[in-house]
C-alpha cells in the first residue's frame, strides 16, 4: 500500500492508483473534464489533455487523473495556486470556443458550461486566434460541430476502442488538431453506425443529435393529420431523470399523460410491436432451428447493429432475422391495419417514435422501410428531446396524473418491456419459442444468466431434451467478438442478441446523459425487470391485441401478409 496525504487527510491506497482515484476514496472532489471513467462499461478516457484536474504536489503542479500516487506525497487539491491553474486552463479552452451558449443544443447539459460556473469564471481573458471548421449535418442522426470540440478525445476512445467502428479520428497537430472522419467525409458517407455513443460521452455541444422537435410540432398543428405516437421500452425508465426524479423511477403513466396533453391523437406503445416482433422472430427461429439452417439467428431490432454487420460482416448477412425492428413494425401496422380500422388514409397519418436512440432517426429514413408506400415511421424523437418538449409545453411532469395507453396498439406483455435491457429480446424470444416447440407454457420465465451489464452473456436452455445455445452482446466491440466466435464455428450458438449500446437500449445515445454514473444504467435495467415482473402477462403470445391482429388481418405468424409488412432485407 502507498501512504500519502491529500488536503492533510491520510490516505492509503494500492500501488498503481492515480491521485484522482485516491482523492475519490476519501471523498475529495477534483474537477475533471476530458477524464471519464465508466470502466464497468468498458470505457475509460485517460487522455489527460485538458489539465483541469491540476493539483499541487509539493512545488510541482501535476494532473491528478494520470499521476500515480507515491509514498509520502503531500497533495493540495484546493490551494489558491491549484485553483488558479485550473481556471487558467479553463479560460484557455474557452478562448478557442464559441460563445453561443444561450442557443447551443447543449445549453444546460454542457460539462464545459457547468465547469465555468463551478470555477466562477467571469471573463475570458485570452482572446486570440480561433480555429474554425465546417459543421457536419449530413446525417439523419448526428451533428458534428468541431468548433465546439475541446479535444478531450472521449468520442474517439468510444468509437475506436469500445465500439470498434473507427469512424472518428483526430488529425493535425497542436492548435490545428481536429476530430473528424477519414478524409473529412460527411458522416452520412462513412461507416458510422449512428449508435450515438460518441454523443453520449461528448462533454460539450460538439456532437449532438439531429432534432426532430419542430417537425413534430408542425404535424401536431396540422389539422389534416392524425398524429400517432409510440414510446420505446427504455424511455419510461429514464425520462424521469430529466425532471430530477430518482433514477430508475418508472414514469410510464406520466409520459403517456404528457403526450396526451401535447395533443397527440393516439398514444400507443412500441411494446405492443415488440410482442409482435417476438411472434415473427420466434417463428423464424423455430423454423431455422428445426431445419438447422441459417443459424445462429441474430436479432435485428438495433439499427446500429444492423449497419455494423452490413459494413463489417457482410459475409454473415444470411443470418440476421428478417424482422423489422418493433417501432418500424408498429409504423407499418399503424398505416395499414389501424388505418383501415379507423377509416384513415395512410398519407394523412404521421407516426412519431419516442426512442432512447439516435440511430432510429437514420433507420426511419431507410427507403426499404416503407411497406405501405409511405415511410413506416415519420419522425423519431429521443428521450432527451421528449423532456425538452414537456418543458416547452410547461407540463408539470412530476405531478401530472397518470394516464393509460390507447387501444388497440397499446397493450403489451412483460416480454416486450425487457427489450429495453440487454438480454431481454433473447429472453422474450425463448419464452415464446418454448411454447411454439413444446405447446406448453414455460413456468420459470426468467433467465438470470442473461441479465446485467456484462458485455457478453451466454446461456444454454434445454427445450424438450434439446439444448438451445444463446448469447447476448451489448456494445459493438463485444458484438464483434461474438460474431468472430460465431464465424469460426457456426454451431456454437443458436440465437444471438446484439445491442449496440451499453446495457442495451437503456444506455442508448438518446437517453439522459450518464455523466460518469454507470450505476444509473443498472437502476434503469432493474426498473425494466421490475416492470416485467409487475405485468400480469409475461409472454408475447398471451397478448390479446396481438392475437386479434393476426386473426383479423395478418393470418398466421410468418404469413405472406406478415412478411410484406413486418420483414425486411439487408444491404450488402
Ligand atoms: Fe429499443 Fe426496440 S428495444 S430497439 O432497444 O427492439 O431504441 O427501448 O424501441 O424498435 O421495442 C430502442 C428500446 C426499442 C425497437 C423495441
Ligand atoms: Fe462512432 Fe457510434 Fe459515434 Fe458513429 S455514432 S462516430 S459509430 S461512436
Automatic annotation (TrEMBL):
SMART domains associated with the record: Fe_hyd_SSU (SM00902), NADH-G_4Fe-4S_3 (SM00929)
Species assigned in the record: Citroniella saccharovorans
CDD domains on file: fer2 (cd00207)
NCBIfam families: FeFe_hydrog_A (TIGR02512), FeFe_hydrog_A6 (NF040763)
Cross-referenced PANTHER family: NITRATE, FORMATE, IRON DEHYDROGENASE
Keyword Acetylation annotated: no
Pfam families, per the entry: Fe_hyd_lg_C, Fe_hyd_SSU, Fer2_4, Fer4_7, NADH-G_4Fe-4S_3
Domain 2Fe-2S ferredoxin-type, residue spans: 1-81
Protein name: NADH-dependent [FeFe] hydrogenase, group A6
Lineage: Bacteria, Bacillati, Bacillota, Tissierellia, Tissierellales
Domain 4Fe-4S ferredoxin-type: from-to ranges: 140-171, 184-212
Ranges for domain 4Fe-4S His(Cys)3-ligated-type: 81-120
Keywords: 4Fe-4S, Iron, Iron-sulfur, Metal-binding, Repeat
One GO MF term attached to the UniProt entry: 4 iron, 4 sulfur cluster binding
Organism superkingdom: Bacteria
Amino acid at each position: 500500500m502507498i501512504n500519502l496525504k491529500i488536503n492533510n487527510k491520510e490516505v492509503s491506497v494500492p500501488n498503481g492508483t492515480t491521485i484522482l482515484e485516491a482523492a475519490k476514496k476519501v471523498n475529495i472532489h477534483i474537477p475533471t473534464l476530458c477524464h471519464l471513467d465508466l470502466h464497468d462499461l468498458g470505457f475509460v478516457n485517460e487522455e489527460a489533455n485538458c489539465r483541469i484536474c491540476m493539483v499541487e504536489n509539493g512545488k510541482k503542479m501535476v494532473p491528478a487523473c494520470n499521476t500515480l500516487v507515491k509514498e509520502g506525497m503531500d497533495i493540495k487539491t484546493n490551494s489558491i495556486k491549484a485553483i488558479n491553474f485550473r481556471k487558467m486552463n479553463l479560460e484557455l479552452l474557452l478562448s478557442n470556443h464559441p460563445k453561443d451558449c444561450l442557443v447551443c443544443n447543449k445549453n444546460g447539459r454542457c460539462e464545459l458550461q457547468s465547469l465555468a460556473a463551478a470555477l466562477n469564471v467571469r471573463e475570458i481573458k485570452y482572446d486570440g486566434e480561433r480555429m474554425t471548421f465546417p459543421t457536419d449535418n449530413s446525417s439523419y442522426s448526428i451533428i458534428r460541430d468541431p468548433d465546439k470540440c475541446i479535444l478531450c478525445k472521449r468520442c474517439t476512445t468510444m468509437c475506436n476502442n469500445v465500439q470498434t467502428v473507427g469512424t472518428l479520428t483526430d488529425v493535425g497537430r497542436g492548435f490545428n488538431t481536429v476530430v473528424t472522419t477519414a478524409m473529412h467525409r460527411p458522416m452520412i458517407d462513412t461507416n458510422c453506425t449512428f449508435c450515438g455513443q460518441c454523443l453520449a460521452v461528448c462533454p460539450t455541444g460538439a456532437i449532438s443529435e439531429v432534432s426532430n422537435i419542430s417537425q413534430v410540432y408542425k404535424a401536431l398543428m396540422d389539422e389534416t393529420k392524425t398524429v400517432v405516437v409510440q414510446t420505446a421500452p427504455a424511455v419510461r425508465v429514464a425520462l424521469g431523470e430529466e425532471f430530477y426524479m430518482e433514477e430508475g423511477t418508472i414514469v410510464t403513466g406520466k409520459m403517456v399523460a404528457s403526450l396526451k396533453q401535447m395533443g397527440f391523437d393516439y398514444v400507443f406503445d412500441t411494446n405492443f410491436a415488440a410482442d409482435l416482433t417476438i411472434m415473427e422472430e420466434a417463428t423464424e427461429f423455430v423454423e431455422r432451428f428445426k431445419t438447422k439452417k441459417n443459424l445462429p439467428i441474430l436479432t435485428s431490432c438495433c439499427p446500429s447493429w444492423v449497419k455494423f454487420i452490413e459494413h463489417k460482416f457482410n459475409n454473415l448477412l444470411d443470418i440476421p432475422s428478417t424482422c423489422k425492428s418493433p417501432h418500424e413494425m408498429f409504423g407499418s401496422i399503424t398505416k395499414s391495419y389501424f388505418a383501415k380500422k379507423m377509416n384513415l388514409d395512410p398519407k394523412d397519418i404521421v407516426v412519431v417514435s419516442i426512442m432512447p436512440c439516435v440511430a432510429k432517426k437514420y433507420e426511419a429514413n431507410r427507403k426499404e422501410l416503407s411497406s405501405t408506400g409511405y415511410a413506416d415511421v415519420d419522425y423519431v424523437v429521443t428521450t432527451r428531446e421528449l423532456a425538452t418538449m414537456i418543458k416547452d409545453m410547461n407540463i408539470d411532469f412530476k405531478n401530472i396524473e397518470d394516464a393509460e395507453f390507447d387501444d388497440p396498439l397499446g397493450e403489451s406483455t412483460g416480454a416486450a418491456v425487457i427489450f429495453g435491457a440487454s438480454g431481454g429480446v433473447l429472453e422474450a424470444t425463448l419464452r415464446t419459442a418454448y411454447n411454439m416447440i413444446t405447446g406448453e407454457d414455460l413456468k420459470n420465465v426468467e433467465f438470470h444468466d442473461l441479465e446485467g451489464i456484462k458485455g457478453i452473456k451466454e446461456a444454454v436452455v434445454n427445450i424438450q431434451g434439446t439444448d438451445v445455445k444463446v448469447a447476448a452482446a451489448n456494445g459493438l466491440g463485444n458484438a464483434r467478438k461474438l460474431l468472430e466466435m460465431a464465424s469460426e464455428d457456426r454451431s456454437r450458438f443458436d440465437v444471438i442478441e446484439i445491442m449496440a449500446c451499453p446495457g442495451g437500449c437503456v444506455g442508448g445515445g438518446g437517453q439522459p446523459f450518464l455523466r460518469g454514473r454507470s450505476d444509473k444504467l443498472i437502476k434503469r435495467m432493474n426498473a425494466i425487470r421490475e416492470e416485467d415482473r409487475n405485468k400480469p402477462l409475461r409472454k408475447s403470445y398471451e397478448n390479446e391485441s396481438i392475437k386479434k391482429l393476426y386473426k383479423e388481418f395478418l393470418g398466421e405468424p410468418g404469413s405472406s401478409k406478415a412478411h410484406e409488412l413486418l420483414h425486411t432485407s439487408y444491404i450488402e
